[in-house]
Amino acid sequence: MKPFESNYKLILFDFVGCGNSDLSAYDSERYASLDGYAKDILEIFEVLNLKNIIFVGHSVAGMIGIRAAIKCPDYFDKLIFVAPSPCYINDGEYTGGMERADLEALLAIMDSNYLGWSSALAPQVMANADRPELGEELTANFCATDPDIAREFARVTFLSDSREDLPKITIPSLTLQCSDDILAPLTIGEYMHKNIPLNTLYIMKATGHCPHLSEPEETIELLGKYIGLN
């Protein structure tokens, strides 16, 4: 994020239950939907008195940002979605990437063997098999998360459906779509672009679901291009 430090105030935070957040603040009822996390974002904005915000959200965090922006659009200047998906389940003509039965089986494995699930899934999510250290880094991140919280967050994430929210966005936005992503196929970027007013779509050369880790230079370049830094 250093290329942006001279032009912007950067606010980095961990969602409750993740990273260095206060685990004692986690409440299963509050975080039973993405709305609980959206409330947290708005509370951060209020406490820090932030305005003209460019919100950058990776994966499901993009959908959390959307919910916050629909509720309180005046905080936001732009929204940037990195490898987003409004719905991970195939539904008629909509291609989310997974059949519901396959997803339920995946969650069942997670319930019975979280560490094994993490070790098997993380390299697939990261892709870039020629650089196994990337998959190992993501595996370590998964394994550092409290298993009970991680299981609940996974269910909220993968079973959420934010498709009806997309047309409600009134703020200019960018979708960064990876060219090969098992969690968000190419059709997702096209769907986001088609259904979100004022949306710009960039198809990345990056593969996998975490371009900020696998291809940070490309990610930074496209972010800068969109906000006018290069």
Structure description:
- By secondary structure, this protein is α/β, with parallel strands linked by helices.
- 47% of the residues lie in helices and 10% in strands.
- A 4-stranded parallel sheet has the order 1-2-3-4, sandwiched between helices.
- Helix 3 links the parallel strand 1 and strand 2.
- Helix 4 crosses helix 5, helix 4 packs antiparallel against helix 7 and helix 5 packs antiparallel against helix 6.
- The longest helix has 15 residues.
Distance between the termini: 15 Å
Order of helices and strands: HHEHEHHHHEHEHH
- Radius of gyration (CA) equals 17 Å
Q: What composes the largest sheet?
A: 4 strands, parallel
User: Approximately what portion of the residues adopt beta-strand conformation?
Assistant: 5-15%
| Helix content bin | 40-55%
| Strands side by side in the biggest sheet | 1-2-3-4
Q: In oligomeric terms, what are we looking at?
A: single chain
> What's the overall geometry?
globular
Mean pLDDT equals 91
> How large is the count of helical segments?
10
User: How many distinct beta strands?
Assistant: 4
Unreliable residue stretches = none
Secondary-structure-based class equals alpha/beta
